[in-house]
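Minutes, methods subgroup
Present: GH (chair), OT, SY

1. OT presented the first of two proteins processed in the latest run. Sequence and structure tokens recorded below as shown on screen.
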Amino acid sequence: MSKASKPPAAAKSAAKTAAAKPPARSRANAREGQRAVRDGAYPAPAAKRGLSVREHSAAPAYSAAPATLNSYVAYLREATPLQRVEAEREGVPARMVKHMASDMDLPAVRMFDILGIAKATAEAKAAQQAHITGASGQAALGLIQLLGIARDIVDDSTDPAAAEFDAARWLGQWIEQPQAALGGQKPADLLDTPTGLSVVARLLGALASGAYQ
């Protein structure tokens, strides 16, 4: 794997090149993100079915899941298997997907292509405050999972610059780069299946440990 595909110094103190490091998020964007978290930019999804008494005792209902991208990332980190099942059934708010594309510095049309959903359909769902479900919704959840892994790499870094490192933008660049460990394929092109997502997630985690050089 080329050095350009490895987490840069701010995300991993052992990295030796700053060329792959994207610019830090501006203070204005940071403030905007904070307002989105505070105000709740996305409508919380409603569960399609009630949980059993046993399920209720094991985990809170999915309707309590957070409705912004940053808090959704944190939610999936701690979600129980039952909560993840509900998340997969409910799908991801279309507006959240557009927000994710912006954070990852990817054109919305490219994000829709990665998720396997037509632009017109995605735009219509965003306007209706609807959810992207099915295979496309699961691919969106997979991207959110990868974003959580990228942020964990940053959180675990001892580099002082990590506090200003834009993990989402770096991930957006990384998934668009062909990876030798994936046979020259881009991670973005493997997210349409659970197995592909699993392979990409393992590779991203391996970058943090230095398993791939």
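2. SY then presented the second protein from the same run.
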Amino acid sequence: MADVVLYTTRWCPFCIRAIGLLDRKGAPYTNIDVGADPALRSDMAARAGRRSVPQIWIGETHVGGCDELYALERAGRLDDMLNN
């Protein structure tokens, strides 16, 4: 399985939806909560070029946010990405 990393906050509904999809897929992931740590959010923004959450990586590929993750699922590409 590919390494999956999410930058999230606890109160973000899009973060909760993204985590829910990965949980249903049985995909292990590392969840980095940036809600209470400005330094972590700055690291995420530098890496992603965006300050919004969630920001999701599958392996070395920056997927983007929740909408992009669900778009991969609808296109039938998410399972392949998770299993590589």
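Chair's summary of item 2: Strands lie at 4-8, 30-33, 55-58, 61-64.
Next meeting: continue with the remaining queue.
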